[in-house]
Design a protein that fits this description.
mainly alpha; disordered N terminus
C-alpha cells in the first residue's frame, strides 16, 4: 500500500527535491554576487573619498598658483607702466614732445598736477591779472581739476614713485631701478607659480588613476549587482514552479486522505448493526409494523422458524429504539 500511494507523486517529489537543491545553489551564487558587489562598493567608496580629498588639495594648489600668477601680472603691468614713463621722460629730456594719447597715466597726472599748482599760484600771487584773464584761468583750472579727478583712480595703482619733472635725470634713474625691481618680482612670482605646478602635476596623475580605479570598481559593483539580480529573478521563477509542485503534492495527499476516509467510512457503514444505525433501525421497525416480518440476508421469515406461541411474546418483549455506540 505505501508504494502504491507514493507512486503517483514520486516524479513530482523527485523534481521538487532537484529544484530545491538547485535553488539552494543559486541562493549561494546570488549571495556570492552580492558579497562581491558589497566589496566592490566599499573599495569604490574608499577610492572616491581619496579622490575627493586629492581634488580638494589640487584645488587649493591651483588657487594658490592663480593668485601668484595674478601677482606676477601686476608686477608685469607696473614694470611696463614704469618703462613707459621712463621713455616719456627720456623723450622730454631730449626736447621732444610726446603725443597726448601716448603718454602714460602717471605722466599725464603729474603734468596735470603741475599745471594746477602753477595756475593756482599765479592767481594767488599775480596782482596784475585782469578780471577776464583771471576768469579764463579759473575756467581752465576747473577743467584741469576735473581731469585730475579722472586720472587719479586709474593711475593710482601704478603710482610707484613720485616723479619730479624738474629733475628728469634723477626721476629716470629712479624709474629704471623700480622697473628692474618690478621685473624681478614678476620673474620670482612666475617661478613660484611654476614650482606650484610641478607639485600639482603628480597629483593630477594620481587623480586620473583614482578616477579610473573608481570607474573600474563601480563597473564591477554594477556587474555583480546585475548578476545577483539575474540569479534572483531565476530563483523567483523556480520558486513559483516549486510552489506549484507543492500545491500538486498537497492536492494529491488530500485526495488520498479523502479516499481513505471515504473507504473507512464505507467499511464502518457496512459493518454497522441495526441497533447502531438509527435510520436502519427506524426503517426495520416500520417494515416490521407494516408487514409483521423482516427479511435479513435470506428468504426465511421469522414466522417460519418461530412457533406461533412465541410470536406474541416476542412482540411484547421487543423494545424498539436506538442505542448509540457498540455493545460490549
Amino acid at each position: 500500500m505505501p508504494d502504491e500511494e507514493a507512486g503517483p507523486d514520486e516524479d513530482l517529489r523527485t523534481r521538487l527535491h532537484a529544484m530545491e537543491t538547485r535553488i539552494r545553489r543559486m541562493r549561494e551564487q546570488r549571495n556570492g554576487h552580492n558579497e562581491n558587489a558589497r566589496r566592490a562598493a566599499d573599495s569604490r567608496n574608499s577610492v572616491q573619498e581619496q579622490s575627493r580629498e586629492l581634488r580638494e588639495r589640487i584645488k587649493e594648489h591651483l588657487d594658490e598658483q592663480k593668485e601668484v600668477r595674478v601677482r606676477a601680472k601686476v608686477h608685469q603691468a607696473k614694470r611696463d607702466e614704469i618703462q613707459s614713463q621712463m621713455r616719456e621722460l627720456i623723450t622730454q629730456r631730449r626736447g621732444k614732445r610726446s603725443g597726448e594719447g601716448t603718454k602714460s597715466l602717471v605722466i599725464q597726472l603729474s603734468e596735470t598736477l603741475g599745471e594746477i599748482d602753477r595756475i593756482e599760484n599765479r592767481i594767488m600771487t599775480d596782482g596784475s591779472l585782469t578780471l577776464d584773464k583771471e576768469n579764463a584761468m579759473l575756467k581752465k583750472l576747473k577743467l584741469l581739476i576735473a581731469k585730475r579727478d579722472e586720472l587719479m583712480p586709474a593711475a593710482e595703482e601704478f603710482q610707484i614713485i613720485e616723479i619730479d619733472l624738474g629733475d628728469m635725470e634723477g626721476s629716470i634713474q629712479l624709474l629704471k631701478a623700480e622697473a628692474d625691481s618690478q621685473h624681478k618680482a614678476m620673474l620670482d612670482a612666475n617661478k613660484e607659480a611654476d614650482e606650484i605646478w610641478d607639485e600639482v602635476k603628480p597629483m593630477l596623475e594620481e587623480r586620473d588613476f583614482l578616477r579610473a580605479e573608481g570607474d573600474r570598481l563601480h563597473n564591477a559593483f554594477t556587474s555583480s549587482r546585475e548578476a545577483a539580480d539575474n540569479v534572483h529573478s531565476e530563483i523567483k521563477i523556480l520558486l513559483d514552479q516549486v510552489n506549484e509542485i507543492r500545491d500538486d503534492l498537497k492536492a494529491q495527499r488530500e485526495e488520498r486522505e479523502r479516499l481513505i476516509r471515504d473507504h473507512n467510512q464505507f467499511v464502518r457503514d457496512a459493518l454497522r448493526t441495526p441497533d447502531e444505525d438509527e435510520d436502519l433501525a427506524s426503517s426495520l421497525a416500520d417494515e416490521l409494523l407494516e408487514k409483521g416480518s423482516i427479511t435479513l440476508g435470506g428468504t426465511r421469515t421469522d414466522t417460519d422458524s418461530v412457533p406461533e406461541s412465541n410470536k406474541k411474546e416476542r412482540k411484547k418483549s421487543r423494545r424498539l429504539g436506538t442505542t448509540r455506540g457498540k455493545r460490549d
